[in-house]
Amino acid sequence: MIGSGSSGWPVAELDTVRRLKVIASGSGQHASFSERRFDVPLERLWSVVSDLENELPLIVSGLRSFTITGSSGERLSGEAVGAVGFRERFEVVLRPGWCLMQGQVLTSGMAATADADGCRFAFFTSLRLPGGALLDRLRGPWSARRAEDMLDRLGERVAARSAPGRPE
To answer: pTM here?
Structure first.
């Protein structure tokens, strides 16, 4: 949305998904970014996505576990352990509709925003290594497929947590 601020300068407000896309665009030439619309309320989807310790390993392939190691308001620290045992510490900003995670090797983010009777969700990841742009370019086709699979698993987890008889 573009409007005019009190100073007369144009003002542009971006929803969380568009903001994440801007960050992904600036994080590396070949960052992986995927977006999908889900036919569920934002709150239902975000309750799954923001459960980093229990749900993230079920949604992100290759992630064995994610443990919150500290928190101060919306700022968290955590440790991710990959399927082959690689460990990485992350600094995390987690708020409704927004999650940005930064480690030494990887920057990742998730965002969601209401969209009529459903919501839009986006995910991005980019390597932070020397030569990361080249590696991002090489992993591009694989990353795109992996991101689509992750969005499929997210839909499955939202459906599973919304099943009748299961408390939300």
So the answer is: 0.84
